[in-house]
Amino acid sequence: MDTPAYIFDLLKIILPALIVAGIIYLLFQQFLEKEQQRRLIEMRLESGKATLPLRLQAYERIVLFLERISPNNILVRLSSAGQSAPDFHRLLQQEIRAEYEHNLSQQLYISADAWTVVKEAKENVLTMVNRAFHGLQNPAQSRGTELAKRILEGLMLDGAEPTAQALAVVKNEAAGLF
Question: pLDDT tens for residues 100-148?
């Protein structure tokens, strides 16, 4: 047998086999990629099923937090009757901070932007309380009811609840889950 003819016959067999093997390899590679994408989608769906209730609960708790620290609600909930202005001021600060600390873990489930707005709302309420306290004629001798009245006057002058923007952001973000 002639060597060049033998090589030519061998190439006629090997070359199509290599082409078929290459095509099978590419098809198998595409199959594996699509399978991996399908698994990722399934994992995200499963994860979403588990985290959606937690995220909704977090939004509910943040809304409740914002409602509880809004000046109108906190003044009604915490009675200023019989307290001095410094005692009531301290009580208001403690209550706002305690509510905030109680809900710190909720930041895991809401966006960083929403959490920043929530923190700003808390700081705005504290600033409003502090401004009202320091705006009293004689804070050490004033009554808690005078402080409450001053806070409500400040709220009317500002024209907007210090928690209103944060509530709108949180509600909008929660609505985006659906």
Answer: 999 999 999 999 999 999 999 999 999 999 999 999 888 888 899 999 9
Q: HSE-up of 15 (CA within 13 Å, CB side)?
A: 6
pLDDT digits (tens, 9 = 90+) for 62-72: 999 999 999 99
b (16+ CB within 10 A) / e for 9-38: eeeeeeeeeeeeeeeeeeeeeeeeeeeeee
Q: Is 143 helix (H, G, I), strand (E, B) or coil?
A: strand
Question: Which DSSP state fits 139?
Answer: T
Do 95 and 78 meet the contact criterion of CB atoms below 8 Å apart?
A: yes
Residue with tokens 């700003």: 120
Distances (CA, A) of 173 to 21, 79, 118, 123, 163: 52, 34, 12, 21, 15
**Chain mean pLDDT for the chain:** 90
Please write the tens of the pLDDT for every residue from 8-62. Answer: 888 888 888 899 999 999 999 999 999 999 999 888 887 667 778 888 999 999 9
Read off φ and ψ for residue 136, nearest 5 degrees. -70, 150
- Given a contact cutoff of 8 angstroms between Cβ atoms, the answer to whether 121 and 66 are in contact is yes
